[in-house]
Amino acid sequence: MVASSLKLQELIQEIREAKTQAQEREVIQKECAHIRASFRDGDPLHSHRQLAKLLYAHMLGYPAHFGQMECLKLIASPRFTDKRVGYLGAMLLLDERQDAHLLITNSIKNDLSQGIEAVQGLALCTLSAMGSAEMCRDLAPEVEKLLLQPSAYVRKKAVLTAVHMIRKVPELSDTFLPPCAQLLHERHHGVLLGTVTLITELCERSPAALKHFRKVVPQLVHTLRTLVMTGCSTEHSVSGVSDPFLQVQILRLLRILGRNHEESSETMNDLLAQVATNTDASRNAGSAVLFETVLTIMDIRSAAGLRVLAVNILGRFLLNSDRNIRYVALTSLLKLVQSDHSAVQRHRPTVVECLQEPDASLSRRALELSLALVNSSNVRTMTQELQGFLESCPPDLRADCASGILLAAERFAPTKRWHIDTILRVLTTAGTYVRDDAVANLIQLIGGAQELHAYSVRRLYSALAEDISQQPLVQVAAWCIGEYGDLLLEGTCEETEPLQVEEDMVLTLLERVLQSHMSLPATRGYALTALMKLSTRLHGDNNRICQVMSIYGSCQDVELQQRAVEYNALFRKYDHLRAAVLEKMPLVERGGPQVNEEAKESKEVAQLSEAAPVPTETQASKLLDLLDLLDGPSENAQHPPPLDPTPGDTLIHLLDLPCAPLPSAPIPNLKVYEREGLQLTLSFVRPPGTPTLLLITVTATNTSGGDVTHFICQVAVPKSFQLQLQAPSGDTVPAQGGLPMTQLLRILNPNKAPLRLKLRLTYDHFGQSVQEIFEVNNLPVETWQ
C-alpha cells in the first residue's frame, strides 16, 4: 500500500485536475489512508514525505490531527530533513489547547543547544509561533543566551522569539532587559528591527523597563537620523525610503518613551522635524513614515510649531490620490481638532471638498470633521456648505448631517432669524431624518422671538403649501399657524415677499394635512389643535372647523378621537371659555426657565430643606419606558406624589430651633462608569424631613481631548421604588475637564428595600456612537436604610 502512494507533486497535480469537490475528496481520502498506513508501519525513510502530503491536505481544510505524534517523532530525529518537516507540522497542527505541544519542549531545548544555525532557527520559529506560557518559562534562559550569538541569523530569530515570550509571560521582562542595550548597537537591520520591537513590548508592559530605556533615547535618535539623512544600502530601500519598517518601529518606540516626559521629548524634537521635512510622501512607504511621525509629535510634549507642522502633513495627505491615506488623515485630524483647533482650521476648505467623495467611509469622516470645525466665526459659511451636502448626500448620512447642522446652529447661531432659517431649510431638505427634539426646539425658538412671529408663520405657511411630506416641518408649521394665524392673514411682514392669504386657504391647507396618507397621528394632532386655535384667530364662521372636529370624534386613533371630542365640548358646552383656553402661548425665553429651575433645585438640595420640584409628565413617561430593564413592563408603575414640606417643618427651618433634626452624615460618592476619559459619579442626599426620599445627583465629567455630545442618561429602578428623573443640565460634556453635566434623580423608597439601579448611556465620542447598559448594585447602605 505504501508503494502505491503518490509523491507530493503528483498529489498536488491530481487534486488540481479534480473537476468536482467529490473527486477532490476522493483523492484526499485515498491518500490519507496511505499516510495512516505508513505511520502505522513506522517507515522512517519516507515519514517526512508522508507528513508533507498531510500538511498540504491540512492547508486545504481536511482533518490532519492524526499526524501530531508523527511531528514529535520527526522533531526528535537527528536528520535535518525530518526536523524541517516536523517543526513545520508542529507549527500547523499543534497549539496551546492541545497537551501534545508540551511534549516537544525538551526537543526544542536540545536543538537550541546544538549550535547548528539552521536547526536553531527552526526551533526558534516553532517556539515563537506556538509556544505556550509554560514553554516560554522553561526555555527563556536558552533564548537569552542566543540573543548574543555571533550569527546574525540566530540573533534575529531569538529576538523575535523573545517578543513572543514577553507577550505570553510579561514577568519575563527582567530576563531580557540586559541584552537589549547591547543589541541596539547592531548594524544588521533585521536584528535591530527585532530589538526595537522587543524594547517596545517591554516598555508597554513594565514601568521599570520604560524608565530604564529612556536612557537610550539619544541612541535611538542617532540611529533614526542616520537612516533619514545618510540613507542605507539599496537592499533595505523601499521606493527610495531608507528601511521604512525600521523607521516606523523606532518612531513608535520614541512615542512611548517621550510620552509625558519632558526631557525625552526635547531630545527628539529636532529629529522629528528632520524626518517630517526630508521624507518623500509621494510613495506609500514615505507616507507611512510621515504618518508615524505625526502620531509621535502629537503624543509627546512637542513644541507648538512642530504640532502645526504635523497638522500640515495631514493636510497634505488630504490631497493624496490614495483613498486610504485620505481616510487616515481625516481620522487623525478629527482626533486633533480639540487640542489644535486653529491649526486644523487652516485645512477646512480641503476637508469640505472631501464631503463629495464617492467613498462612503471618506464622506462620513469628512462630515464628522466638518461638524467639529464649526465655530462662531465660520458658522454661516460652514452651515451653507453642510446644507449643500445635505441635499445630495447618501441616505445613511442624512441623519448625522441634519443633526450636526441643528446642533451647530443651536450653539453658534449669530441671530435668531438666521437660526430659524437654518432649521427650516434642514426640515425642508431632510425633515424625516432629524432628531425627535428638533420640532420642540424650533417651536421654543419661534415662541421666544416675538419680533419674528409674523416672519416665521409666513415662511412656514409657504413651505407647507409646497410640501407636506416632511413630517417635522408639517408639525412645526401647523403649530405656528395655529398660534399666529392672525399675523399670517394681516400680511404686514416686510421681511418676506408679499403673500396674499385667505382664511379658506389656511383651513384648506390644514384639512389637506389631516387627509394626507403621509401624515402621522402626531401630525394630525398638531393640525387638529391648529384648526381649533384658528377658531379664535379668524373672523369667519367656525362651522367648517366644527365639522372637522365632529368627523374626528369617531376616529379610530384614540388620541385624535379624544382631542376632537374635547374640542367639540368646548364648542358646545364651554364656548364662553374657548377664547381664554385657546389664547396664545406666553413668550418663552430659550433656556431661561430651565436654568432658573436648575438653580432652584441646586439651592434646595444644598439646604436639605425641601424636595426638588416634580418633573414634567413627558420626562416621567420617557423614563418609565426603561423600567422593563429591571422588572419587566411598567404599566402599573405610578408617579410619586410631590413631597412638599409641611408648614411645621418650614417653621423649624426658619427659626432654626434646637428641636430641628440634625443633618445625617454625608454619604460617600460612588463612581459607576469610566471609559475613554468619560466618568459618571453618583452623589447622594437624604433630606431629614422625608427619610424615604433619596436625591441622587448624576455628574458626568470628561477628561479626554474630544467633547462627548448627544449625551443621554436613562435610569430604571425596581417596581417597589418610585423614580422621577429631572432634566439634565445639557447634552454635551466638554473636553479637557470642562464644566460637568449634572442630572438629578428623586427616588422614593417606602419599604426601605435595598436599592439597585440600571443605567443606559448613549452618546457620541470621537466620531463614534456609544451605548452602554449596566447595573449598579453596590450603592452605599446609607442610601436605603
Give an overview in words.
Helices cover 58% and strands 9% of the residues. Among the domains are: 450-582; 670-783, Gamma-adaptin ear (GAE) domain (Immunoglobulin-like, Sandwich), CATH 2.60.40.1230. The chain contains 36 helices and ten strands. The longest helix is centred in the first third of the chain and has 21 residues, at 21-41. Helix 13 (217-229) runs parallel beside helix 15. It has a five-stranded antiparallel beta sheet. It is elongated and about 110 Å long. With 785 residues, the protein is an alpha+beta fold. One of its GO terms (cellular component) is AP-1 adaptor complex. Keywords: Coiled coil, Cytoplasmic vesicle, Golgi apparatus, Membrane, Protein transport, Transport. Residues 592-616 are annotated as: Disordered. This is AP-1 complex subunit gamma. It is found in: Cytoplasmic vesicle membrane; Endomembrane system; Golgi apparatus.
**Poorly predicted runs of 5 or more residues:** 592-662
Which percent range describes the beta-strand content?
5-15%
End-to-end Cα distance: 82 Å
Shape assignment = elongated
Provide the helix percentage: 55-70%
What is the mean predicted local confidence, pLDDT? Answer: 83
What's this, in brief?
The chain has 785 residues and is of the alpha+beta class.
Main features:
Immunoglobulin-like, 36 helices, single chain, alpha+beta, five-stranded antiparallel sheet, three-stranded antiparallel sheet, 785 residues
Summarize the SSE layout with pairings.
Blueprint lengths: L7 H10 L3 H21 L5 H13 L8 H9 L3 H14 L11 H8 L4 H14 L2 H14 L5 H17 L4 H11 L5 H17 L1 H7 L3 H13 L7 E2 L2 E2 L1 H15 L3 H17 L5 H16 L4 H14 L5 H14 L4 H5 L2 H6 L6 H14 L5 H14 L2 H18 L3 H15 L7 H10 L5 H14 L4 H20 L12 H13 L5 H17 L5 H10 L5 H15 L2 H7 L10 H16 L9 H8 L3 H4 L15 H9 L14 E6 L2 E8 L7 E10 L5 E9 L5 E4 L15 E8 L8 E9 L2 E9 L9
Antiparallel strand pairs: 1-2, 3-4, 4-5, 5-8, 6-9, 7-8, 9-10
